[in-house]
Amino acid sequence: MLLDRRFQLFVVLVGVFVTSLVVGDIISVKLFEAKVGPVVAVMSIGILPFPVTFLLTDILNEFYGKKAARFVTWVGFFMAIFAVVVIAMAVQVPWAPLTRAPDFTGTVEGSFNNVFAGSQRFLVASMMAYLVGQFCDIAIFNGLKRLTRNRFLWVRATGSTLVSQLLDTVVVQYVAWTGVLPNATILSIIYTSYVVKLLVAVGLTPFIYLGHAFVERKLGIAPVVLGENGEPIAPPAPPVTQEEQPRAA
Asked: Mean pLDDT, to the nearest integer, of 69-86?
């Protein structure tokens, strides 16, 4: 196997992507307050790593194409399901009697279950929103790249993230809270959550350019160039040297 820089970068991007997604699902049980103007919103701390997945999706789309980005999206989805199944099995395994001793100072059953035995409905909502948001991000990024003829990185990076994050927010909040909270409250959560995500997306734009410059200039990896049909244009094959030409029998 040839471990060239392009392949090595792909492995690193996939690793960070999957880690951000799985960690985001695990820590989502923690809630915090976010003040957006006069409004104070209660949000999940999962908002911290999830924008990284959209950032990495844009980089994957830029340097490897939409097929690679979609492949990584499915890998992340099934790895998240795998993590949920393993955690559910871990919760069901009986605890050792010594953990119930009054002088035991390690992690106890109640604390462990409060963190890892989260709401299955919220996990389902998160996975549905993830698929909708990621595939929307990939499609819009690719479409804007084609329309702008491979120019204006900030347009496709920011534009795709703004739309995909909106869909992600609407799906996760409605699936998670419909029938539990009033519609007015759900709409308020959607609004405040999206505003925060909007600010994060705009704040990540310089990092898109930094990542693009690092990959292209320091690693020597060129971005994918789209043709008129929206498909990547294959780079020209290197010229065949005289030594590589087949010899006559």
From this structure: 88
Residue 147, H or E segment: helix 120-147
Q: Classify each residue of 102-114 as buried b or exposed e, where b means 16 or more C-beta atoms within 10 Å of its C-beta.
A: eeeeeeeeeeeee
Q: Bridge partners of 39?
A: 36
Indicate the DSSP class of residue 232: B
Residue 2, number of CB atoms within 10 A of its CB: 5
117: Cβ contacts below 8 Å, ≥ 6 apart = 88, 91
Per-position DSSP letters for 23-66, written without gaps between them: HHHHHTT-EEEEEETTEEEEEEGGGTTHHHHHHHHHHHHHHH-H
**Contact predicate 124/171, CB 8 Å:** no
Residue 237: which pLDDT band, with cuts at 50, 70 and 90? very low
| Stated pTM of the model | 0.76
Angle, CA 104 vertex, CA 102 and CA 107 arms, to 5°: 120
Contact 63, 221 (CB under 8 A): yes
Sheet strands (E) in the chain: 31-36, 39-44
